[in-house]
Amino acid sequence: MKELIQSINQIIKYALKSNIAELEKEQNLEKNLIIIYKLYFEFEYNFDEVKYSEFDITKFLNIEDNIKSNFPAIGFYNTFIDLTKVPTTESNCALGDAFDDLFDIIKDLLEIKWRLENNSYDDGIWYFKFIFKSHTKQHILGLLHYLNETKSY
User: What's the structural domain count of the chain?
Assistant: First the structure.
């Protein structure tokens, strides 16, 4: 669990503070995204049936502005709607957005951390497993692909 919280903190800092002075920022982001991805397969939980209060993302201010200040160059990338089809026309092409990927990943991680710290271990890990499989995973894959294709380090 310590590794999960450490990696979450390493990623969410880019939304909580502006203009972070850090060498190899993209490399740090990439490394911690991979750790989060790996940890998804390592956690187990018992479903927690307690009704907890809900996470409130509005308590976190300036997320978008802070991400933009820390990664001003991230932008759009090309992707495919269906990777199993050979692209014979442009109809299978789509536009990905690395900024949106990072923004959504951070929102998911903020809630995972909040649930772990304010609700329970089982609620936090259940949410991690649920949101990762249904949402976060795709954004991580898109962002990792973007970072790989635009590597400057």
Answer: 1
CB-based contacts of 119, cutoff 8 Å, min separation 6? 48, 50, 52, 53
**Domain region containing 92:** 2-149
**Backbone conformation region of residue 10, classed left if phi is above 0, alpha if psi is from -120 to 50, else beta:** alpha
Residues 56-109: pLDDT tens digits? 999 999 999 999 999 999 999 988 777 677 766 667 778 899 999 999 999 999
Residue 106 to residues 19, 70, 81, 91, 101: CA-CA distances in angstroms? 17, 13, 24, 30, 9
Predicted structure pTM score: 0.92
Letter for the amino acid at 128?
F
